[in-house]
Amino acid sequence: MGLYVCVIKCVLLKRCPEIYVRQESAAVRVNPFRDRICRVFSMDGTFTFEDVLGMASVFSDKASPRLKIEYAFYIYDFNENGFIDEEDLQSIIQRLLNSDDLLEEELVTLTNHVREADLDNDNMLSFAEFEHAMSKSPDFLQ
Length: 142
Ligand SMILES: [Ca+2]
Ligand SMILES: [Ca+2]
Hints:
The protein is mainly alpha-helical. Helix content is 66%, strand content 0%.
C-alpha cells in the first residue's frame, strides 16, 4: 500500500466534502492513520497549497529517510508529548486491529520491536530511539 496515495486521498477528501462523505469508509480502511496524517501536515485543520507541497515532498522517493522517519514519529505520537509511549502504542495497535491489516503474530512482532527499540528502558521511545530502530527496518522506507 502506498502511503503517498493515502496522503493524496487525504488531501482530496479534505478539500472536497462531497467525496469525503462517499469515500469515508474506504479511506479509513486504506489508512487507519489518515486523521493523524492530516493533523501532522496541517496543524490548523485546513490544507494550504504549501501543506500539500510539504506532504508531497515528504512522501516522495527523493525525500531523505530521516525526514520520513521524522514525520512517521509525529504521526505515531498521538498524544503529542514528544515520545511514543504506552498510550500511543495502544492507539496504534487499536487502529491496526480495526483495519484488519494486522495478524496476531505481527502484533507480537511489533510489540517486540518496540521493546527492543527502547534502549534506555523507560517504556517509551524518544525520537533518537525511534530513528535508530526505523533505520534498521528497510520496509518502512519504501
Ligand atoms: Ca506520545
Ligand atoms: Ca526509551
